[in-house]
Specification:
14 helices; globular
Length: 352
């Protein structure tokens, strides 16, 4: 994909790399380091430390290496979706259908695996192809159908969930626990870390490099920051937005494959329902402006870690899962309120 580099004036001021210490205008020393990290990330780090300290005091096993790995593995699937949701939001879009996409990909991977004589690579390949196709459909509907991204992907949330239930008769499909590839994905380790965590780390690193150090990334920020200026600068908005949704579908499908590996079968709904809310919450907490143009992968990963630690701590303490949903919803509202205050947005219905 070729693109013309957009004017730097259209990039958000807190975009990673623009204010690194030692840069042309970057401050130096400890203050420069704090500025480079960013207030949003510092707040997340502080909140994460507080959560770990609280639950570590209540249960010493909470900070054990084994439990840390449990938290990381449990957060991998939602983390993958949060990473790609960050890209879509920076572009000025939103993908509410990622949970249903993961469910459909999960069913696809298991059913193709079973129908092809237990071929894991065909199952995984089919799932990724389905995910990319769904993402393309989302992008085409949004761009050429001129449908609001929220409405288009909300429709996809229902439609893809329905398709997954239709092809699976609403039941778990296939059995993959005996296959070494799926077992390696769910239980394997590389250098002491679970394979699933490595997949999240590598995906996040690749997306971070794309956004921070390439012209494609700069154009993505420009599109979300000011789409009119980006278009006048020669950026093909349609191609970028469709590509962003195709990427979203592909990584959602990868999350679905990992869901299959973890549960041992294709799950049309169980395990994938609610993932879209987790992804959006993590992206918003991580500093993504829901209007587009701002956000970092580092901030999103910190938010994923915070949500994972909070969920694990509440579970260990025997807190009802319904309260965990309440906490997640409250965090999403809090993140948006903080954004609005920082941007000095006028309150709805009140004078400026």
């Amino acid at each position: 994909m070729t693109a013309t580099t957009s004017p730097s004036a259209q990039l958000p001021d807190d975009r990673p790399g623009d204010d690194r210490p030692g840069g042309q205008h970057g401050p130096r020393g400890a203050r420069g380091l704090l500025t480079a990290i960013g207030g949003q990330q510092l707040s997340l780090i502080g909140a994460l430390v507080a959560v770990v300290a609280l639950f570590g005091t209540l249960d010493a096993n909470f900070v054990s290496w084994d439990n840390i790995q449990v938290i990381a593995e449990a957060a991998t699937i939602s983390g993958l979706l949060a990473v790609v949701q960050t890209v879509v939001i920076i572009c000025g879009g939103l993908d509410i259908s990622v949970g249903s996409q993961a469910g459909l990909a999960s069913v696809t991977s298991a059913m193709v695996f079973t129908s092809t004589g237990s071929s894991p690579f065909l199952g995984i390949g089919a799932a990724l192809a389905i995910g990319a196709a769904i993402g393309l459909i989302n992008g085409i509907v949004i761009i050429y159908g001129r449908v609001n991204p929220t409405i288009a992907t909300l429709a996809g949330l229902a439609a893809y969930k329905g398709v997954a239930q239709l092809v699976s008769d609403g039941r778990a499909q296939g059995y993959v626990l005996g296959d070494p590839v799926f077992v390696f994905l769910s239980r394997g380790k590389i250098a002491g870390l679970p394979t699933m965590v490595w997949l999240l780390v590598l995906t996040a690193a690749a997306v971070h490099v794309l956004l921070t150090y390439t012209d494609i990334g700069r154009n993505i920020y420009a599109i979300g920051g000011n789409d009119t200026a980006a278009r006048l600068a020669g950026i093909n908005l349609n191609k970028y937005l469709i590509a962003a949704y195709a990427l979203s579908g592909t990584i959602a499908a990868l999350a679905g494959v990992l869901l299959t590996a973890r549960t041992g079968s294709g799950q049309p709904v169980s395990g994938s329902e609610g993932l879209e809310l987790q992804a959006i919450t993590a992206a918003a907490l991580g500093g993504c402006a829901l209007k587009g143009g701002k956000g970092t992968i580092g901030g999103t990963l910190l938010a994923v870690a915070l949500l994972g630690a909070l969920q694990n701590g509440l579970t260990v303490q025997g807190i009802n899962t319904f309260w965990q949903n309440v906490a997640q919803g409250a965090l999403l509202v809090a993140a948006v309120v903080i954004q609005q205050r920082r941007n000095r947005e006028r309150a709805v219905g009140l004078p400026a």
